[in-house]
Design brief:
The structure is a single chain. The chain is an all-beta fold and 111 residues long. Helix content is 0%, strand content 50%. The protein is built from no helices and eleven strands. Strands 2, 4, 5, 6, 9, 10 and 11 form a seven-stranded mixed β-sheet that branches. It has a four-stranded antiparallel β-sheet with strand order 1-3-8-7, with no helix packed on it. A hairpin with a 4-residue loop joins strand 7 and strand 8. It is globular, with a radius of gyration of 13 Å.
Length: 111
């Protein structure tokens, strides 16, 4: 069983920044695709960004130019730098590492 530990969520004003982290402490394996999803109240969970093992990335349209995903393979950790945050970015953010979900971290953006 892989345990994922997320951190970095919180409350921020519109236009601010947050950095999310998701680590797999104690994991001896390596992960191929690492991704961040989010789920707003009353909405379906949606993919925000993903990064392959080679560093190739993809983003949902609303995140392009504002969010940046990165990874540290040695630490089995994935990051999501979120800039120019908007109230519509408010959601619970989940990391997803090769079939395993994090516990979620709340991001709230006030207007």
């Amino acid at each position: 069983q892989v345990r994922l530990v997320e951190s970095g969520g919180g409350l921020v004003q519109a236009g601010g920044s947050l950095r999310l982290s998701c680590a797999a402490p104690g994991s001896t394996g390596s992960f191929n695709t690492m991704a961040w999803y989010r789920q707003a109240p009353g909405k379906q969970r949606e993919l925000v960004a993903l990064i392959g093992r080679a560093g190739n990335t993809d983003y949902t349209d609303s995140a392009k130019g504002r969010f940046f995903i990165s990874r540290d393979n040695a630490k089995n950790t994935v990051y999501l730098q979120m800039n120019s945050l908007k109230p519509e970015d408010t959601a619970v953010y989940y990391c997803f590492l090769s079939g395993h979900w994090g516990q979620g971290t709340q991001v709230t953006v006030s207007s």
